[in-house]
Amino acid sequence: MPNKKPGFSTLAVHAGAAPDATTGARTTPIYQTASFVFADADHAAALFGLREFGNVYTRITNPTQAVLEERVAALEGGTAALAVASGQAAQMLVFHILMSPGDNFIAAHQLYGGSINQFGHAFGNFGWNVRWADAADPGSFEEQIDGRTRAIFVESLTNPAGLFTDIEAIAAIAHRHGLPFIVDNTLATPYLLRPLEHGADIVVHSLTKFLGGHGNSVGGIIVDGGTFDWSRSGNYPMLSEPRPEYDGIVLHQAFGNTALAVAVRALGLRDLGPSISPFNAFQILTGIETLPLRMQRHSDNALAVATWLRKQKQVAWVNYSGLHDHPNHALQRRYSPKGAGAVFTFGLQVTNGMAAAVVAGTTDETSAAVAAGRLFVEGLQLISHLANIGDTRSLVTHPASTTHRQLTLDQQIAAGAGPEVVRLSIGIEDPDDLIEDIRQALEKI
Known about the structure:
Layout: H1 8-14, H2 41-48, H3 63-76, E1 80-84, H4 87-98, E2 104-108, H5 113-120, E3 129-133, H6 139-142, E4 149-155, H7 167-176, E5 181-184, H8 189-192, E6 202-206, E7 220-224, H9 237-240, H10 251-255, H11 259-272, H12 278-288, H13 291-309, E8 315-319, H14 329-335, E9 343-348, H15 352-358, H16 365-379, E10 384-385, E11 395-397, H17 409-414, E12 421-425, H18 431-442
Parallel strand pairs: 2-3, 2-4, 4-5, 5-6, 10-11
Antiparallel strand pairs: 1-7, 6-7, 8-9, 9-12, 11-12
């Protein structure tokens, strides 16, 4: 469309794709192959030397995955992308490019529990050190920056609390100190919010969640914003210094605003290997086609459920940014005027007497909260209790006993996953049916 930039819904269906040149198939085929035939020896040498782009081996590139990468890059407004096995793999590959042993990065403590564990434990084995900050206090990031800091990381819409982060304020701090700003946009998706438009340099997703949208495939993706100067400080040698395995090529010089995307593929995925399968890429591509329709329905349903929940006597509080009197509502309206997403938390009204009735001999408040949370999730009949979000089906979990169980009580509370907290991921069902299911479960507590 030379005279018009395609709209978001058009990109969700068409970006990166075309009818198959050989068969005419309109849907992107699943290229279920391990490797690809070279035209000749020179062609093979050019591919392995990064002098030409093309398909070598499905661990590194595959035509099905390429369509997925182009589509998500287009939806996010990035220059290029790399699809990988999971959201955790996406994070690992980004930091593999940016960090050396002894370096540190600063991350908001309001994160998915798996990210907290990855950053706080697994990354330590590589000598990468995390420093925790408060997403609600941009100054808490700046005060921890030193000469070995290499990045800042936040979630645009936090999991499980469902709070919007002031991306522009934290981006300004990152750029003032010459640091790339990484934003996990899993919960918001580019339909609600595009972090690159607000100062982010790199966007990551768990494709498993709302982009795939159907709970049938696991994947992750890294989107290169193409705006960061990797050569300026000398702190990112994998991008700014000659690479001996590629005949001395300097990636930032050679690939410019797609250098990060090339690096995570050629220096990360190639050697560490967390590739996404062609079949999973195909499933996620199919899910993305309905992303605009689903995300609006998710948001509308979540607002209806949250509005009803706050009136129930068994509920102490509801933490949903879409509620007009919520402290985070101004940020939601600023960054995501189409809606506040599907994921939010609420707190059960817990008493010690309740705990005694559930767990013999238990009277402390923390145990009471855990017992009430378990009773509630076990009482639901339509809403599924499982460790996922972003499905067409509504989902529930009690984070303190599942996704955030490995954290200390203080860490759980800081992450918005205290013992009384229930997390809902509202699907696209009829909202009246969801409300009825929650009502009957609350009556069982």
